[in-house]
Amino acid sequence: MDVRPVRSPGPALGPLARLAPEPMKVVLNWGRRYSLWVFNFGLACCAIEFIAASMARHDFIRLGVIPFAPGPRQADLMVVSGTVTDKMAPAVKRLYEQMPEPKYVISFGACSNCGGPYWDSYTVTKGVDQIIPVDVYVPGCPPRPEALLQGVLTLQEKIANESVPGRYASPAALTSGLVAPDEDAR
């Protein structure tokens, strides 16, 4: 299985953030790693596999992942599963922007990774990474629940190895004709 981690840009922190002692960084990363509140943005059949991963047989709560956050403002992790259409792209971006920092994204399934079998359609976004930054890609059509568990473990390893300046480096602007740029960010 090919689960590819990707760096997600975030807002810049002040220069004093680098002065935090290393043990404090380890404790903060440990807390973030084992208390991920998930906001599932299920758009198609992959959402059923997400639900299966959260049930008793696979039980990703044992990994420190709490499924079904009340909303994006209480979530740390967004799992985008299913076909993202051009019409749905602004909603995905808006909900991602409502999540507090630090925030992470898992692209779950071929459709959210690259458009899947519908990549040739004029209405399908060719991957959710054109709209929001993605931390981990989980391939498959649909991926099995075990693949999501592996994606979560990959994300947790990435979180454990994060440094504060590395995570909050200057944001790289995502350029896509699907979503208008935020005027307040300039």
Automatic annotation (TrEMBL):
Enzyme class: translocase
EC number: 7.1.1.-
Cofactor: [4Fe-4S] cluster
Residues reported to bind [4Fe-4S] cluster: C45, C46, C111, C141
Pfam families, per database record: Oxidored_q6
GO cellular component assignments: plasma membrane; respiratory chain complex I
Transmembrane segments: 34-53
Membrane disposition: Peripheral membrane protein
Cofactor note: Binds 1 [4Fe-4S] cluster.
UniProt KW keywords: 4Fe-4S, Cell membrane, Iron, Iron-sulfur, Membrane, Metal-binding, NAD, Quinone, Translocase, Transmembrane, Transmembrane helix, Transport
SUPFAM superfamilies xref list: HydA/Nqo6-like (SSF56770)
Summary of subunit composition and partner proteins: NDH-1 is composed of 14 different subunits. Subunits NuoB, C, D, E, F, and G constitute the peripheral sector of the complex.
The protein, known as: NADH-quinone oxidoreductase subunit B
Organism: Streptomyces radicis
